UniProtKB/TrEMBL annotation:
GO terms for cellular component: plasma membrane; semaphorin receptor complex. The chain crosses the membrane at residues 25-48. InterPro entries: Plexin, Plexin_cytoplasmic_RasGAP_dom, Rho_GTPase_activation_prot. Residues 95-305 form the Plexin cytoplasmic RasGAP domain. Pfam families: Plexin_cytopl. Signal peptide: none annotated. It comes from the Eukaryota. One of its GO terms (molecular function) is semaphorin receptor activity. GO terms for biological process: negative regulation of cell adhesion; positive regulation of axonogenesis; regulation of cell migration; regulation of cell shape. Gene3D superfamilies: GTPase Activation - p120gap, domain 1 (1.10.506.10), Phosphatidylinositol 3-kinase Catalytic Subunit, Chain A, domain 1 (3.10.20.90). This is Plexin cytoplasmic RasGAP domain-containing protein. Keywords: Membrane, Transmembrane, Transmembrane helix.
Length: 377
């Protein structure tokens, strides 16, 4: 065997010898390089499968824990609903039905108290007979002409200065004027609806009747409300009121943003409060000042949250007062002044004061946690 410029390699072991030339050495080197690759792949595959099994087991455990938490929450929620149902029925009292005149007036003019006052006597079965002036009588006869009335509606809606609010007010005034002749109002509404469908057939038909942006849409709203009054009062009114009361009660059990009005416990995704701070329930006792001699009323138990602002606490106090006694408190929320009594000292509660937290240019509203309000012992 040569050491410099060798031509072959002879290996002896025992009584045997193997002779390797340069080409055999190259094959052996390649074999030594390739041989560990399958071993490494097998090891990697085994490790990967073990990790995958561990991850699967961990995910299954997490899913089981999550499902168990959801089951517990559902059970607890069902128990709470069963116990709260009796409280709800007990606290609701009499259903505050409106008479027909006030119901119709609020539907027709939801934001105009002056028009409600002027037109309320023209609504209902016991309409007061008022002698109209001559020009009013002439106009009353004109609107009984279907061609004139539909033409007037179209002419007004073509005016750019005729806003959506004006259209709604005009439709409500028409409803009041034609309230005693609903069959004629129905015919006019059918004609206007056909015209509206023809206008929107090539534009956006899916948006038709979804928004009250025309006179006929407000007419339809008023017409449906008038026709449903008896059904609401005699059949579903009580159930709807209990549903709204239960939803309001459930929403008030979680944080509600006093600025955006988004809530943690809501049925609408658009109004869901995604980032809610920690909170704890509070049972407070509210005392109302009686007279000017420092006398106070019996304590009123109010459910609140540690994250409630001062204004939200005022609203909950007044709502609890109305629920318990059946009539509203004689002071508006903005005029109510409240103090927190702790160990004989009184602290005024305000939305913003000298101790309010300031972040940059934003001032945070004070909450009950800010004033360290706790459950009474």
């Amino acid at each position: 065997m040569r050491y410099c410029g060798y031509c072959f390699l002879q290996i002896k072991y025992g009584g045997k010898s193997v002779r390797l030339n340069k080409q055999s050495l190259l094959h052996l080197l390649i074999l030594l390089i390739i041989l560990p690759i399958p071993i490494v792949l097998v090891v990697v595959l085994v490790v990967y499968r073990n990790k995958q099994k561990q991850l699967t087991v961990k995910m299954n455990r997490l899913m089981e824990d999550l499902e168990m938490d959801i089951r517990n929450d559902i059970r607890q929620g069902f128990i709470d609903l069963q116990t709260e149902k009796a409280d709800l029925m007990e606290n609701v009292g009499a259903i505050p039905f409106l008479d027909y005149k006030h119901f119709a007036s609020r539907i027709f003019f939801p934001e105009n108290d002056s028009l409600i006052t002027l037109c309320i006597k023209d609504i209902g079965q016991d309409v007061e007979k008022v002698e109209l002036e001559e020009h009013c009588q002439i106009f009353s006869k004109l609107i009984q002409d279907q061609v004139f009335l539909t033409t007037m509606v179209h002419a007004l809606e073509e005016q750019k200065s005729f806003t959506i609010k004006d259209k709604c007010t005009f439709a409500s005034l028409l409803t009041v004027a034609l309230h005693s002749n609903l069959s004629y109002l129905t015919e006019v509404m059918e004609v206007l609806l056909k015209d509206l469908m023809q206008q929107n057939s090539s534009a956006q038909p899916k948006l038709l009747l979804r928004r009250t942006e025309s006179t006929v849409e407000k007419l339809l709203t008023n017409w449906v409300s008038v026709c449903l009054y008896g059904f609401l009062r005699e059949s579903v009114g009580q159930h709807l009121f209990l549903l709204v009361s239960a939803l309001t009660q459930q929403i008030s059990k979680g944080p509600v943003d006093c600025v955006t009005e988004k809530a943690l416990y809501t049925l609408s995704e658009d109004w869901l409060l995604w980032q809610a701070q920690d909170f704890s329930p509070l049972k407070l006792k509210a005392l109302f000042a009686v007279g000017s001699d420092g006398e106070v009323s019996e304590p009123l138990e109010v459910d609140a949250l540690s994250c409630d602002t001062v204004e939200q606490l005022k609203e909950k106090i007044l709502n609890t007062f109305k629920t318990k006694f059946g009539f509203p408190y004689n002071t508006a929320v903005r005029d109510v002044y409240i103090e927190y009594e702790k160990e004989g000292s009184f602290t005024p509660l305000q939305e913003v004061d000298a101790g309010s937290e300031v972040i940059g240019e934003v001032t945070k509203l004070n909450t009950l946690r800010h004033y360290k309000v706790r459950n009474p012992h």
